[in-house]
């Protein structure tokens, strides 16, 4: 499942940005896939040209075959022009995505034609603006960070991974002395860690280690 962020979270809607769509190259084919289109990915802005219209119609194959008569040979699909993508090492991310971006559900059916299923799966369609939380407290499953939770001491800082775009990595080292000490590239603090286990016969989809961070 393309969700890295666990249910326990605390944030204000005033700190959520709803202006940017995920870059088309990172959109998941299905909600069962994993990648930069997951929910719980740390993102940075890749296109912030506000001279463009907020939404334009693009030629997009997501609507289906355009070769039929009277379709004009094209499928005009609305798409938000401002873009984000998974943040990489050295970036201070805009925030964390609260929804995944995917074309199809777990059965390969287009979410475009099933808005109820889309809502249930906490998904956005290609080209739609993705809600990005810029502040708050969030819980990440082990698919959202590098290494074991032992690499994330309580009270330590986190920064973007140099190995996996959109994921965080362990403690950033402080540099300087006295009042000039600062942490290079950090943007959040570890509040706690834990491990989820199966309860009874039901398998936990987020089985494994997790961390709670404050942005």
Number of domains: 1
Order of helices and strands: EEEEEEEEEEHEEEEEEEEE
Helix proportion of residues, in percent? under 10%
- Radius of gyration, in angstroms, nearest whole number: 19 Å
What can be said about the biggest beta sheet? Answer: 6 strands, antiparallel
Structural class: mainly beta
Provide a descriptive summary of the structure in words.
This protein is mainly β. It has one domain. The protein is 3% helix and 35% strand. Strands 1-13-19-18-14-15 form a six-stranded antiparallel β-sheet, with no helix packed on it. The chain has a six-stranded mixed β-sheet with strand order 2-12-9-5-8-3, with no helix packed on it. Strand 16 and strand 17 form a beta hairpin. It is globular and about 60 Å long. The protein starts with a strand and ends with a strand. The relative contact order is 0.21. About 5% of the residues have low confidence.
Task: Describe the structure concisely for a colleague.
The chain has 215 residues and is mainly β. It has one helix at residues 115-120, and strands at residues 5-10, 16-17, 21-22, 28-30, 42-47, 55-59, 76-80, 83-86, 95-97, 100-104, 123-124, 132-133, 137-141, 157-160, 168-169, 174-175, 182-183, 188-196, 208-214.
């Amino acid at each position: 499942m393309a969700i890295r962020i666990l249910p326990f979270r605390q944030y204000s809607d005033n700190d959520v940005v709803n202006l940017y769509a995920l870059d088309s190259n990172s959109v998941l084919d299905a909600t069962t896939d994993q990648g930069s289109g997951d929910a719980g990915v740390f993102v940075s802005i890749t296109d912030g040209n506000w001279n463009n219209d907020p939404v334009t119609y693009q030629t997009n194959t997501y609507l289906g075959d355009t070769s039929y008569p009277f379709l004009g040979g094209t499928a005009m699909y609305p798409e938000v022009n401002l873009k984000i993508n998974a943040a990489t090492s050295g970036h201070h991310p805009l925030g964390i995505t609260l929804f995944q971006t995917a074309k199809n559900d777990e059965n390969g059916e287009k979410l475009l034609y099933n808005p109820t299923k889309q809502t249930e799966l906490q998904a956005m369609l290609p080209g739609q603006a993705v809600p990005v939380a810029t502040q708050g407290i969030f819980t990440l499953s082990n698919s959202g960070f590098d290494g074991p939770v032992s690499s994330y001491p309580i009270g330590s800082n986190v920064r973007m991974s140099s190995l996996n775009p959109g994921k965080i990595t362990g403690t950033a080292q402080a540099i300087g002395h006295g009042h000039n000490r600062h942490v290079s590239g950090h943007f959040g603090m570890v509040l706690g860690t834990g491990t989820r286990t199966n309860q009874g016969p039901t398998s936990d989809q987020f089985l494994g280690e997790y961390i709670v961070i404050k942005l």
